[in-house]
Design a protein that fits this description.
mainly beta; Thrombin, subunit H; five-stranded antiparallel sheet; 32 strands; 3 helices; about 40% strand
Length: about 425
């Protein structure tokens, strides 16, 4: 039992004169069968100590180049990470390459090209820098590793696993990675009615020969007919989210205001809870979704033909919406071990059709930050039209879109006032 609970909560029946002065603690910690439970009631840091990002980026790379230099134009940025020497590695799906830019934003080199061989890319799905400045690249069907100077190091385990595939989420220094096994669970009959699948979270060994189960993650809620493996979407229902580092795995269920922490071998260690304040799905959100569907372009990118629009209108009449919004939009573990949990925003479902891409919100995003002990430190607001890819001690790097919807790499200064650096 934590001393924070047993020593500080004084019984008012014994000390009635203390009752008017009682203040709720920001966190209460207790143990349950060897798992630590952290109940957060409010942020630990004061308003003056809350972390903030500057409104203007300290580095901005990209946009329409006046001299036509395509090395500063981006199509489908899929990851931004800073190397130890201050350079940035940017995964660019549209050019089938990882590009390197120095701390001032000047282009200094690239790695990879289009192809299916070692060191080549079919479709970059994500990039990340791990221990030793090794660059981890998730390709359409493969995992590849590059050195900090852009040399191809080796090929990792394939993502193909049985009837589905594993989406690499957390690369580890020994060459293994944690990921989510997508596709309906094999050997089980399809559900009926409103239901969710439990997707397996696995650790894939460096050579791909060993796949160990380390947890599970709920899918989005759907309506099933009991015969087909795939159901009908329930709008604003979101599946679980996950993140991790070399030591820990975090799983967040969109239907619960808590995050589960595990070791990378799957042993549960902590439950981090936020105040439960469910948000009902609003008419504003439902109407915004209907307008999004009606104004979406056709498959060729042109305005939707009348016959197709009529079919979509019929579909909208049968659309089922979730009763409550999910709690989390995304999770990120920063370079110092803090966990950032994005508050869900319904506009995240209004996505551009086409290839897998990094999406941005048209409004500011809000992130709850937790320290290594699971304590809720503060909430940080990030700019509109910006999605973070990596967060360091004093910076947030990611992809942004300008007012013309042109992609850019942006790096913002993260400021931690005195007393706020925990």
């Amino acid at each position: 039992m934590s001393c924070r609970v047993t020593c500080r909560l004084l019984p008012t029946a014994v000390f009635p004169f203390l009752a008017p002065m009682a203040q709720p603690w920001a966190q209460q910690v207790r143990d349950s069968a060897g798992v630590q439970i952290v109940d957060n009631t409010r942020p630990l840091l004061s308003a003056a100590q809350t972390w903030r990002v500057d409104p203007d980026p300290m580095i901005s790379i990209g946009g329409i180049s006046p001299d036509g230099d395509s090395l500063f134009e981006f199509a489908l940025i899929m990851g931004v990470s800073r190397l130890s020497d201050g350079r940035f590695a940017v995964g660019v799906q549209g050019s089938h390459a990882v590009r390197f830019y120095d701390a001032r934003g000047s282009f200094v080199g690239s790695a990879g090209r289009k192809g299916e061989g070692p060191g080549e890319f079919q479709q970059i799905m994500g990039t990340r820098v791990i221990r030793g400045d090794t660059i981890f690249v998730s390709d359409q069907g493969q995992v590849e590793y590059f050195t900090a100077d852009g040399r191809f190091a080796r090929q990792g385990a394939s993502r193909a696993r049985g009837p589905g595939f594993v989406w690499p989420a957390v690369p580890l220094h020994d060459g293994s990675y944690l990921g989510v096994h997508y596709g309906p669970p094999s050997g089980t009959p399809p559900p009926a009615g409103r239901s969710r699948y439990q997707r397996t979270v696995v650790r894939v060994s460096r050579d791909g020969q060993q796949v160990d189960t380390v947890g599970s993650l709920a899918s989005e809620e759907q309506i099933f007919d009991g015969r087909q493996a795939f159901g009908t979407q329930i709008v604003f229902s979101r599946g679980g989210v996950l993140a991790g580092d070399e030591e820990r795995l975090f799983l967040g269920d969109g239907a619960r205001s808590e995050i589960l922490e595990y070791t990378i071998t799957g042993a549960p260690t902590r439950v981090v809870r936020l105040p439960r304040s469910p948000r009902r799905v609003t008419n504003e959100a439902r109407n915004a979704y209907r307008e999004y569907v009606r104004t979406s372009p056709g498959e060729d990118g042109r305005p939707m033909p009348p016959a197709m629009r009529a079919r979509f209108d019929q579909m909208l009449e049968r659309t089922t919406f979730a009763d409550e919004f999910p709690y989390f939009g995304d999770l990120i573990v920063d370079r110092t071990g803090h966990l950032w949990a994005q508050q869900y925003d319904y506009r995240s479902v209004f996505r551009t059709p086409g290839p897998v891409r990094t999406h941005t919100l048209p409004v500011a995003s809000h992130w709850n930050v937790f320290d290594r002990a699971g304590r809720w430190l503060c909430t940080v607001d990030l700019p509109a039209r910006f999605t973070p890819s990596e967060i360091g001690t004093d910076y947030v790097a990611g992809m942004a879109r300008d007012t013309d919807d042109v992609e850019q790499v942006r790096v913002y200064r993260l400021r931690k006032p005195q007393g706020g650096a925990r």
